[in-house]
Design goal:
It contains 4 helices and 9 strands. The chain has 201 residues and is of the alpha+beta class. The longest helix has 24 residues.
Length: 201
């Protein structure tokens, strides 16, 4: 029997600075959409004697999937934001009508969505930019045994901050690595100062 996770509305920050007419309700509904999806899919998988999706997916794939799903769901519930229709364009969410066909390779009017399992919201990006960046922190129970007793995936923190290029440090790149940038100590502090959701664990 799979558990259905529920968003804890008491964990939201009523004083958070929300750009582009975003509402706390938009975040609540987006996260609940993900919880409902995982519950339904995992119930079907377990019914067939298979593993939960949480246990099957590699961390990088899970983060990518969650980012895409959250982008789509926030866009669906938001009053002013829509998905960036440019493939791999930045940011993920655009203010409707600002860019032609709501598509731009590199824009500024919108919100970039990131997900990570790192508490605190520090996450690698493909480059330092001036942007509104939203980071969803999630946890997966991959330790409890037996596996059918594991808790469902849960969002524990959400941050939304206006950061600039100077808030990032560039990461050293190996011979085969991809260049990345991560918020430095002060940049992370700026992001965390505008927390949206913090679940007490």
């Amino acid at each position: 029997m799979t558990q259905r996770n529920r968003v804890d509305f008491s964990a939201f920050n009523e004083q958070a600075d929300l750009p582009f007419q975003l509402r706390l309700k938009d975040f609540e509904l987006a996260m609940q959409d993900i919880y409902d999806f995982f519950h339904d899919v995992n119930a079907a998988l377990i019914d067939k004697g298979l593993q939960r999706m949480d246990d099957m997916l590699r961390p990088a794939i899970m983060s990518g999937l969650l980012s895409d799903m959250l982008t789509a769901s926030v866009a669906r519930h938001s009053r002013t934001l829509t998905e960036n229709k440019y493939f791999n364009g930045h940011p993920d969410l655009l203010v409707k009508g600002v860019y032609a066909d709501n598509a731009v390779k590199s824009g500024t009017e919108g919100v970039e969505i990131k997900t990570t399992r790192k508490s605190g919201g520090a996450v690698d990006t493909h480059g330092a930019r001036d942007q509104w960046m939203c980071v969803f922190v999630y946890v997966i129970d991959d330790k409890t045994e037996p596996a059918n007793a594991r808790k469902p995936m849960a969002f524990t923190e959400v941050y939304l901050g206006k950061v600039v290029q100077e808030d990032f440090r560039k990461n050293a790149r190996g011979e085969l690595g991809t260049r990345t940038a991560t918020l430095h100590k002060e940049g992370v502090a700026k992001l965390r100062s505008n927390w949206i959701y913090r679940l007490q664990t």
